[in-house]
């Protein structure tokens, strides 16, 4: 779908907010807190950005983009965009939804990872739900939405942590995550190291895996393919597909006419998550936790490969 950039402003150091609307003024497709859109940036680049406005709004979408100095092209291209330009985007998809059975939500954000978290905060506040927000940033000038977090519905639920603050005022994940319960859910988004630390701390504190939700916004550089091929077998029809050296499983399946939905193609979003019935995957994603990887019952064919000559997939 085509959208128009009707407003662009700097909301923190290196962070630009873009307000997107239908060029004809039509209502936008509905979305839920935690959802993202694919943005066709330029020259074939597609990037995923979380929607950070209130999900009750139907007239617009808002995304925030960090100008990453180590960008692969996406953030630089977005920061060159100006008001009045048009973009092609997908309809919203949500791989990071709020749990419907949560008695209390812990929202944990690091840096630009605040974008889906703030939308979740809007939704929970409007429902009168029980929640708390913990937001870490380099400093006040690098933190987005400070004015919104200071408003009455979020102010008493929000704790801010800055790298420029004394050590005693910085986030202690062990304290925040010290009291898990079956009715409590954790949502964490931010840099990979931040997410890994939060998930590890939660697991050590006794949180249930199903109550810990996370969303990465970028992937680590993926290792190149193994020097050799392997075979995947589709369990539902016993068909076999050869995967060549340096070939992605998703590409080999596509050539064979087997459709698996993909989005980020970086092992971040989990869209292509596929069941594994036999064999040992070579996990190269940023989506599965260490504990989930050890089970070897799922993998992401957009980036992961196989350590064994045969991998049997639940397809």
TrEMBL record:
Domain of life of the source: Bacteria
One MF term in the entry's GO annotations: vanillate monooxygenase activity
UniProt keyword list: 2Fe-2S, Flavoprotein, Iron, Iron-sulfur, Metal-binding, Oxidoreductase
PROSITE patterns according to UniProt: 2FE2S_FER_1, 2FE2S_FER_2, FAD_FR
InterPro entries with a match to the protein in the record: 2Fe-2S_ferredoxin-like_sf, 2Fe-2S_ferredoxin-type, 2Fe2S_fd_BS, Beta-grasp_dom_sf, FAD-bd_FR_type, FNR_nucleotide-bd, MRET, OxRdtase_FAD/NAD-bd
Database matches in SUPFAM superfamilies: 2Fe-2S ferredoxin-like (SSF54292), Ferredoxin reductase-like, C-terminal NADP-linked domain (SSF52343), Riboflavin synthase domain-like (SSF63380)
EC top class, as a word: oxidoreductase
Gene3D superfamilies from the UniProt entry: 3.10.20.30, Nucleotide-binding domain of ferredoxin-NADP reductase (FNR) module, Translation factors
EC number(s) from the headed UniProt entry: 1.14.13.82
One Pfam assignment: NAD_binding_1
Domain 2Fe-2S ferredoxin-type: from-to ranges: 230-315
Domain FAD-binding FR-type: 1-99
Keyword Hydrolase on entry: no
Descriptive protein name: Vanillate O-demethylase oxidoreductase
Organism per entry: Paraburkholderia xenovorans (strain LB400)
């Amino acid at each position: 779908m085509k959208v128009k950039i009707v407003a662009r402003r700097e909301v923190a150091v290196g962070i630009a907010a873009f307000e997107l609307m239908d060029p004809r003024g039509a209502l936008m497709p509905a979305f839920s807190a935690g959802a993202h859109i694919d943005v066709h940036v330029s020259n074939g680049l597609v990037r995923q950005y979380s929607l950070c406005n209130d999900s009750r709004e139907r007239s617009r979408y808002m995304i925030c983009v960090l100008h990453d100095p180590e960008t692969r092209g996406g953030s630089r291209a977005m920061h060159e965009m100006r008001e009045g330009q048009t973009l092609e985007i997908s309809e919203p998809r949500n791989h990071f939804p709020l749990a419907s059975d949560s008695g209390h939500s812990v929202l944990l954000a690091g840096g630009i990872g605040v974008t889906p978290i703030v939308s979740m905060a809007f939704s929970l506040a409007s429902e009168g739900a029980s929640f708390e927000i913990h937001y870490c940033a380099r400093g006040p000038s690098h933190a987005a939405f400070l004015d919104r977090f200071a408003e009455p519905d979020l102010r008493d639920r929000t704790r801010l942590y800055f790298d420029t603050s004394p050590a005693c005022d910085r986030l202690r994940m062990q304290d925040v995550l010290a009291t898990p319960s079956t009715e409590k859910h954790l949502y964490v988004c931010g840099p990979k190291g931040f997410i890994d630390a939060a998930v590890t701390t939660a697991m050590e504190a006794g949180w249930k895996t199903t109550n810990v939700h996370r969303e990465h916004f970028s992937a680590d550089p993926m290792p190149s393919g193994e020097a050799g091929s392997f075979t995947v077998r589709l369990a539902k029809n016993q068909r076999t597909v050869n995967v060549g050296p340096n070939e992605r499983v998703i590409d080999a399946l596509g050539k064979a006419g087997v459709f698996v939905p993909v989005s980020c193609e970086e092992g971040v979003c989990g869209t292509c998550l596929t069941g594994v019935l036999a064999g040992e995957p070579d996990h190269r994603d940023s989506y599965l936790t260490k504990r989930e990887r050890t089970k070897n019952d799922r993998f992401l064919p957009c980036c992961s490969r196989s350590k064994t000559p045969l991998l049997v997939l639940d397809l």
